[in-house]
Amino acid sequence: MNRLLGLVAGAVLLAGGAYYYSTQSNSTAGLLPGAANAQSTTADSVEIQEMFLGSETAPITVVEYASYTCPHCARFHEGAFKQLKTDFIDTGKVKFVYREVYFDRPGLWASMLARCGGETRFFGISDMLYSQQRQWTASGDPAQIAEALRKIGRTAGMDDATLDACLTDATKAQSLIAWFEENAAEDGIRSTPSFIIDGKLHSNMAYSEFAELLNDKLN
């Protein structure tokens, strides 16, 4: 647990109101809590499900790239996202796709936890991860963070055996990192939160700007 092995090169820098990342390696050795921490894997990758809210036939598609350990992402999900959901997603105007970015091991673990709940619980667990971000990331100690994430999983209705299986799945972790790197490279993602709105990259913005942009597209 105390080895830092190559998910992110160097420190994560906070600049310009967003997190910036630099990927170095997709090795999952040392990235997972529990048994898989000491293992590497060459197993085939698994298919990663795209998580989204709203109608598949909505006239606008918004793709968010975010990290569960990014404070700016947490602020977006605690504020602007709730308005976006009420005004645009729940009304069938926007299909909202959520894609994880991995700056660090806890961000990867949080993603694996959220996906452990399946499609029906993914966004509910994501809400808990963002609303409790300061609490579960506070210690900076990998063991304590892993246990705090398990506590969130238990609150979401998962037992310890299910959580251990999810959080030590090295093949899933490797697939998630490869999926993230491919998506980020294709869309030119360099900070979080970032948004692809109908194919165009946008940085974080106030809800008023977001709403104006979406309304312009709808009119």
Please outline what is shown here.
The protein is α+β, with helices and mostly antiparallel strands and 219 residues long. The chain has one domain: Glutaredoxin (3-Layer(aba) Sandwich), CATH 3.40.30. The protein is built from nine helices and eight strands.
Quickly give the CATH architecture. 3-Layer(aba) Sandwich
Number of helical stretches of at least 4 residues: 9
Q: What is the overall shape? A: globular
Q: What's the number of structural domains? A: 1
User: Percent range for helical residues?
Assistant: 40-55%
Q: How many β-strand stretches?
A: 8
CATH fold-level assignment: Glutaredoxin
CATH hierarchy, class: Alpha Beta
Strand order of the largest sheet: 3-5-4-7-8
- Beginning-to-end CA distance, first to last residue: 52 Å
What string gives the helices and strands in order? EEEEHHEHHHHHHEEEH
What fraction strand? 15-25%
Please describe the structure with a list of short key phrases separated by commas or semicolons:
alpha+beta; disordered N terminus; Glutaredoxin; globular
What do you see in this structure?
- This protein is of the alpha+beta class and 219 residues long.
- The chain is built from nine helices and eight strands.
- The chain has one domain: Glutaredoxin (3-Layer(aba) Sandwich).
- It is 46% helix and 15% strand.
- The strands form two sheets. It has a five-stranded mixed β-sheet, with helices on both faces.
- Helix 3 crosses helix 4 and helix 3 runs parallel beside helix 6.
- The N terminus is likely disordered.
